[in-house]
Amino acid sequence: MSSALDKIKSMITLTNEPTSGPSAPDRVNKSHYRGGHQVQSLLAQGYHSKFDPLRGGIKTAPVNVPAQVGKESQRDHGRRNRDTSQAVPLAATNEQFKKLNADLEAALRVWNREKQQWQLERTQLMERNRQLEMNVGNPASSSTFTGIKTNGVKNNDLSDLEKSEMGYTKLESDLAAKTGEIKELRTAWRKTAEELAKLKSLEPRFTSNDDVIISNWKRLRCSVMDFCYDAFRKYLETDSLRPHIFAAYIWRTSILRILGHTNTAFGGDSAAAFGSLNEYFQGATCNGELTKKEHRSWKAQTASMLSKSSTTDDEAIQGYAYKIANIPFRFFPDAYDEVARSNLLDSASELAVQATELARLFACSLPDYRPEMGGDSYNGFKVNEESMEVVAQNHNARKVDLVRSPCLSKYGNSFGEKYDKGSVLVKAEVLL
User: Fold this and answer.
1) Contact 267/306 with Cβ under 8 angstroms?
2) Mean pLDDT, all residues of the chain
3) Which of 46, 211, 344, 347 is the most exposed place for a label (fewest CB within 10 A)?
4) Confidence (pTM)
5) CA angle at residue 359 from 353 to 364, to 5 degrees?
6) With the CA atoms of 175, 176, 182 and 187 taken in that order, what torsion angle do they form, in degrees rounded to the nearest 10?
7) Which of 398, 227, 257 is nearest to 327 (CA)?
8) Tens-digit pLDDT profile for residues 262-273
9) Higher local confidence (pLDDT), 97 or 280
10) Rounded-to-integer distance, Cα 20 and Cα 359, Å
11) Within 13 Å and on the Cβ side, how many CA atoms surround 257?
């Protein structure tokens, strides 16, 4: 019986424990990024949500995203693991509910059988006690008590009576303990059943696909380094730190600006209105007039609707592309002929497109994804191993000399909760 109860307790405990999120991919195939200029179509594997602003109902459905600038990459297809730490699959929850219910019923049947056995033993003990008490009152009527001594010393038969009474007392105590245990089990079961019912009643919310975002982030990071090596390969030594410096400069002056502004991801006048409203609601959230969940729900829903009805702002993308390509042009104005300039501008355009796609993914997600540099790139600070990985180091260096690319952090989950808790999805690349 105890084993059955222990099994049910462990099942309930496991049901109440939060699940862990998926781990980030450990490595990236860099040959993918150094090959042709490939661009993954935004939200090719994502989700779009339908939101009724009056009733607050949120439902999800697949997104049909218009074609983006650049070529579509097929490398990241197949990495569609959802954020299992946030969105509970209802089918799996239902199976867990059925299994837990079956295990509880089995345990209760075992307990009922043992309870009936205890009651039978109790009845037998009570009857035996009654018979023994009658025999003690009339020793001559029973051969069992013919050996009682007149000096009041109890013989072995009287010891049996004491043992019987002790057994009866112990059985009563065990029965009371088991009754309390089964009450606790039923209380825990009702709590678990209520939580499972609540999960089943919740409509699916915005689901964040961490793997897709991580893949796009690492692809963009490698593309930035490829651009730096290609743009300056004739003028840089193999072990030169200049590509890292140029990469950090591109991140700070261009990539982070694209990721921080939603207008680039959605073209047209509606995108400008979206950006203005987003800033207004962000201020209202900081003032406590709106909750973080309300703001993020509105932003994700509106961005998803815009992603279906509008394209990217090609003019803004080209502006960022010219700004990125102008970095090597400014340093080496006479080093590139017309063909080289055109190729370099194409590569810069691809960087801008990849950053724009990532910005759109951020905007359409209920969790808050944030690029974070981790400190001033020009003043040394200590390495944080949880959010940084060292890509180059001087022998005697102990502090960060340069942040080549920022870390990617995630706040909140797909249910609009826990925005005060963050986790690092991709570490920053730093040089010591």
Assistant:
1) no
2) 68
3) 347
4) 0.52
5) 130
6) 170
7) 227
8) 656 666 667 777
9) 280
10) 26
11) 14
